[in-house]
Specification:
Elements (H helix, E strand, L loop, with lengths): L2 H17 L19 H4 L19 H9 L6 E2 L7 H4 L12 E2 L20 H4 L4 H17 L19 H7 L9 H5 L4 H8 L7
Antiparallel strand pairs: 1-2
Length: 207
């Protein structure tokens, strides 16, 4: 840990000791903890050197994203037939029904359509089970590297941090209880996304 991180941890430990804070949250304690140590981190510079993306409205590049913002474009669309039959779920007044026919969707169908030549290091049997989020993420990471002009990442001490929402593929695969593939644990879980990128691109992480 860096010196600023160590200082924050030290201050927090002192705060806990002085105020009798235990490991369990005290709902009735209205006293706010000291957070002045975190101010030191807020001023750290962040450089965005490359971008890759897949967004609703067919946005795939930073230029297209910028144009969509400038034009104030509505990137929503009708629910694709490949997602679900919106006619069977939509109702303007029925309780529990879907109240809209529109949403924000990626135009490309990534399920079962990954470019196998792009992932030669992943065996075919594993690709069959792989969460589309993983293949999509690796494609976008590659484009991000290209956009930034980065070529010397192989084997370097580079960290990978991924924010993710939802484990739909994992939940669907878990319902098949009679045949759970051996790659299920690391092919579907959101917790494997950053590790998948680090492994495929041989990123060694910060040390």
């Amino acid at each position: 840990m860096g010196s600023s991180t160590t200082q924050i941890a030290h201050e927090f430990a002192i705060f806990q000791t002085k105020n009798g804070v235990n490991d369990s949250p005290n709902i009735g304690n209205n006293e706010k903890p000291r957070t002045n140590g975190f101010a030191a981190l807020s001023g750290q510079p962040i450089a965005v050197v490359g971008m890759g993306m897949r967004l609703p409205g067919g946005v795939r590049t930073a230029e297209q994203f910028w144009d969509a913002l400038i034009e104030k474009r509505d990137c929503s669309s009708e629910v694709p037939k490949s997602r679900y039959n919106v006619d069977g779920f939509y109702s303007a007044d029925k309780p529990g029904a879907v109240r809209t026919r529109r949403g924000y969707f990626l135009e490309d169908d990534y399920i079962g359509n990954a470019d196998l030549n792009f992932f030669p290091a992943i065996p075919g049997f594993e690709m069959d089970e792989l969460d589309p989020q993983q293949t999509l993420l690796m494609e976008v990471i590659w484009e991000c590297m290209e956009n930034a002009g980065q070529t010397g990442w192989n084997g370097k001490d580079i960290g990978c941090y991924v924010g993710v929402f939802g484990e739909d593929w994992h939940e669907l695969a878990a319902k098949e209880t009679l045949s759970i593939p051996r790659v299920h644990a690391f092919a579907n879980g959101a917790y494997t996304l950053s590790n998948r990128v680090s492994y495929q691109f041989n990123l060694k992480g910060p040390r």
